[in-house]
Amino acid sequence: MTGFTVHVDELRAAARGVGQTVRDMGSCKIEDIAGEEGQYGHADVHQGLEHFCARWQEGVEILLEDGAVIAEALTTAASQYGAADQTSTDTINAAGVVGGDES
After folding, report:
1. Residue 99 — very low, low, confident or very high, per pLDDT cuts 50/70/90?
2. Is pLDDT larger for residue 95 or for residue 98?
3. CA-CA-CA-CA torsion for 62, 65, 68, 74, nearest 10 degrees?
4. Does residue 34 carry a pLDDT above 90?
5. Would you tell me how many other CB atoms lie within 10 Å of the CB of residue 78?
6. For 45-56, how does the pLDDT look when each residue is reduced to its tens digit (9 = 90+)?
7. What is the C-alpha separation between 64 and 35, in angstroms, rounded?
């Protein structure tokens, strides 16, 4: 068998899932994890953790941007496949084609 099958509802669900993850992660700032300097007993330890968290935040922000692009691409793909399915259905119905094997 050649070709492929697209499950439009699954594409839509994936888009919603990725979009929700992006929204959830966008509300959590990793750079806030370090807390107050007094918690660490030494200023250098606190500064090191702040630096680490700031860099980690930069990476997360890049991933969030990519995630938003992926969610948008999945949404667009689902819309396009859905429209193509509807066009095919409308064309078949207009031609009076009946499903099933007539042998």
Report:
1. low
2. 95
3. -70
4. no
5. 21
6. 999 999 999 999
7. 23
Domain locations in the chain as residue ranges: 11-80
Task: Tally Cβ neighbours within 10 Å of residue 95.
Answer: 8
DSSP states of 25-83: HHT--GGGTT--GGGTSSHHHHHHHHHHHHHHHHHHHHHHHHHHHHHHHHHHHHHHHHH
CA distances, 95 to each of 35, 59, 83, 91 (Å): 68, 54, 18, 6
Amino acid of residue 64: L
**94 vs 87: CA distance, rounded Å:** 10
Q: What is the per-residue pLDDT for 37?
A: 86
pLDDT band at 103 (very low <50, low <70, confident <90, very high): very low
